[in-house]
TrEMBL record:
Signal peptide: none annotated. Coiled coil: none annotated. Pfam families: NUDIX. The keyword Plastid does not apply. Keywords: Hydrolase, Magnesium, Metal-binding. It comes from Methylobacterium isbiliense. InterPro entries: DDP-like_NUDIX (IPR047198), NUDIX_hydrolase-like_dom_sf (IPR015797), NUDIX_hydrolase_dom (IPR000086). This is Nudix hydrolase domain-containing protein. It comes from the Bacteria. Residues 20-153 form the Nudix hydrolase domain. Its cofactor is Mg(2+).
Length: 170
């Protein structure tokens, strides 16, 4: 059991006795690009300007997947179909306005983007860009998020190929 805690400490960056991670919810926004390849939208964080996914704190009165979809609208102007079940999670250290850092665990929901609005609440505060799966995984700094991007991107490609094959047999 002790070795399992040591492994968790090394991966998550926390030690026994530290506060539990704070929970956040986020989306991995996906679309099919003009060339038919899967694309993922990343946005810049407000403070450090690093590439991240739309995410935030759970919201009272909303289910986690609904709160995650709301973050996608507020931070990137994205509208689409959000999965009700989280695809996975990752850990990161969030810097607070006080300059303290807290460990957060982000539950990530898939968002199949139908459209991006021309105007949204945080448009002037962030940049957004559509990346290939590999480019998105390389652009983020959190190893857990990069692994999740690769896993979801790989599953989506397999699903698309399976649908294409079943459609070709008809």
């Amino acid at each position: 059991m002790k070795s399992l805690r040591n492994l968790a400490s090394a991966i998550a960056g926390w030690s026994e006795g530290a506060d539990l991670p704070r929970r956040q919810v986020g989306v991995l926004p996906l679309r099919t690009g003009p060339d038919g390849a899967l694309q993922i939208m990343l946005i810049t964080s407000r403070e450090t300007r690093r590439w991240v996914i739309p995410k935030g704190w759970p919201m009272k009165g909303l289910k986690d997947h609904e709160a995650a979809a709301r973050e996608a609208y507020e931070e990137a102007g994205l509208i689409g179909r959000v999965s009700k079940r989280a695809e996975g999670s990752y850990f990161y250290h969030k810097r607070l306005k006080s300059r303290d850092a807290v460990l957060c665990q982000v539950q990530v929901f898939r968002l199949d983007v139908r459209r991006q609005l021309k105007d949204w609440p945080e448009r002037a505060e962030r940049e957004g860009h559509w990346f290939s799966v590999q480019e998105a995984a390389d652009a983020v700094t959190e190893a857990g998020l990069a692994a999740l991007i690769r896993a979801i991107g790989g599953r989506s490609d397999k699903d698309k190929r399976a649908k294409g094959q079943s459609g070709a047999k008809r």
